[in-house]
Amino acid sequence: MIAKGMIQDIDDIQQVSRTNSTTGEHTQSGVIKVLTSKPTQVIDVRVNVDLWKESQNGKHFESLVGKQFEFLVEYNQYSFTDASGAARSGTTMNLFNLPAFPKAN
User: Fold this and answer.
1) H helices within the chain, ranges in order?
2) Backbone phi and psi for residue 17, each to the nearest 5 degrees, phi listed first
3) Taking the CB of the first residue and of the last residue of the chain, which one, N or C, has fewer CB atoms within 10 A?
4) pLDDT computed for residue 48 by the predictor
């Protein structure tokens, strides 16, 4: 899905660190809060490990703060059973690729 939005503040760009409990591998990904229009809402967009590296750990997103841009996201529904046997489910918006820099007027 193509959406138009804006990152309002540099604090809306967060790095997420995780350690895989099985392998011990440490990874970094990101979450950005994007203000969209039509309908106006703030959505959390997850940035996977590869795109987070490609964005230079969020530096690319810092250059977009306060500017309207188009981005591609995929809506993801998930469900699983956790270690205690409880059923978990939810939805996420995942960034599909890095947004291009806005065109200069």
Assistant:
1) 49-54, 59-62
2) -105, 135
3) C
4) 95
